[in-house]
Design goal:
Helices cover 68% and strands 13% of the residues. The protein is elongated and about 140 Å long. The strands form 2 sheets. Strands 2-3-5-6 form a 4-stranded antiparallel sheet, with no helix packed on it. Helix 7 packs antiparallel against helix 8.
């Protein structure tokens, strides 16, 4: 018998091992604070990676522009073989000639009419715009993650409220059924209680689905697998906001990245005007060449060198330079108008989110009172029904009112916290 048991164990062991290896490992729950979530998003989010690539591209564009004002050196080697037609110089025969040439040429732009300097300045301004764009992308991502984090907290709290509602209806139904068995209440009370319980269970299923979707949304933003079991460490809470609307506006105008971007774009448009105006000015270049000919290797007996300055001046171009200048001037006006428009839009955003924050703040105060009153009303309705002086409808309505009061309180806290996150972004508060 003992031998049979050992044989069975030996036969079953590979099967159990195979089953264990084939089953997917369950991911351990990940507890995240809001700061943890933002840090993960900044590390993993693809928009940040794209913005970093654009910044690097702008950096090398500066190096390219600066190289245009520097010293250049080119080495050229030419191998040539050609046929000379018959003539009296070649004794009326075809003559094949092989020629080698090596040239070393150096050049340096002495004066470009301000064109090269303006192009370098433009490239540096574009680098600044890219850097500011990265800051704006980080701020937008922080807002998205914060909203998703609080959204998960909202749905998790609503799930708890819906579960409490189901529990309240379940406990009440047991009480109604007991009284019905005792003959003190009508069957309609039992049926009405079952209907209310079914509705609450339906809402509980929806709340669970909303919670699961909120987890997946947060995971997507912070770069975790969608099926990761992310659990927030924090809770929806109220912290009084101390800044006034005027202070928020002043901060936004001084720190919003988009405003600084437009200031850089205005300076870049002014550089476009300088570049166009350089067409009316001369350009001067210094050059030097050293040439070795007839032989494939350089030598002292076959060299030829030269050094000089070349100057060019556009005498007439059929209005080309003038048209470029007018285009640049028109573009400057457009960017200036866009900058003013952006500032006005930012101030509107700040006002919108500030007022939304203050509205939610007032709702928090009233909703907390409403929750306390709804809880008292529910307890009273239950006691009255047990005593036979209240109706079943009173209890059902009290449960529903309590649930709605708690949902309203959660919604107000969610609106307050998300409005604050949106206000931080509208003000241009930097991401730590």
């Amino acid at each position: 018998m003992q031998k049979n048991k050992r044989l069975i164990i030996k036969l079953m062991l590979p099967i159990v091992t195979l089953v264990m290896l084939s089953c997917p490992a369950l991911a351990a729950p990940v507890e995240l604070s809001l700061a943890d979530s933002i840090a993960l998003a900044l590390k993993n989010n693809r928009n940040i990676a794209i913005a970093n690539s654009e910044k690097e591209n702008a950096y090398w564009a500066v190096k390219q522009a600066e190289a245009g004002k520097g010293f250049t050196l080119n080495l050229t080697h030419t191998d040539e073989r050609y046929n000379t037609p018959p003539s009296y110089l070649t004794n009326y025969k075809y003559v094949w000639t092989t020629k080698f040439d090596n040239e070393l040429a150096a050049s340096f732009p002495v004066y470009s009419g301000g064109k090269l300097e303006s192009q370098i300045d433009q490239a540096k301004l574009n680098l600044k715009v890219s850097d500011l764009s990265l800051d704006a992308t980080k701020q937008q991502l922080r807002q998205q993650v914060t909203s998703a984090y609080f959204n998960l907290l909202q749905y998790r709290n609503e799930l708890q409220v819906n579960q409490e509602t189901v529990d309240n209806y379940t406990a009440h139904l047991k009480n109604v059924q007991a009284q019905y068995q005792a003959g003190t209440v009508a069957k309609s009370d039992v049926l009405a209680s079952k209907v209310s319980l079914a509705d609450a269970q339906d809402n509980l299923i929806k709340a669970q689905n909303n919670c699961d979707l909120a987890v997946a949304t947060l995971n997507n933003l912070i770069g975790l697998p969608l099926d990761s079991e992310s659990t927030p460490k924090e809770s929806l809470r109220y912290e009084k906001y101390s800044l006034t609307l005027a202070e928020c506006n002043q901060y936004a105008l001084a720190h919003r990245p988009e405003i600084a971007q437009y200031q850089a774009q205005i300076a870049s448009a002014q550089d476009d005007i300088k570049i166009a105006e350089s067409g009316y000015r001369p350009s001067v270049d210094l050059f030097a060449t050293e040439d070795w000919y007839d032989k494939d290797l350089p030598g002292a007996d076959n060299n030829n060198w030269s050094i000089g300055l070349t100057a060019s001046f556009n005498v007439f171009d059929s209005g080309l330079t003038g048209s470029k200048l007018k285009q640049a001037q028109a573009n400057l006006k457009k960017v200036q108008e866009q900058s003013s428009q952006e500032s006005e839009s930012i101030l509107l955003e700040v006002r919108q989110y500030y007022l939304s924050l203050r509205e939610a703040e007032k709702r928090i105060e009233t909703n907390q009172v409403a929750v306390e009153q709804a809880q008292d009303n529910f307890r009273i309705a239950e006691v009255r029904y047990r005593a036979g002086v209240g109706t079943n409808l009173d209890v059902l309505d009290a449960v529903l009112s309590l649930s709605q009061a708690k949902i309203n309180d959660i919604q107000a806290l969610y609106d307050y916290n998300t409005s604050k996150a949106q206000l931080d972004t509208a003000m241009g508060i930097a991401v730590e």
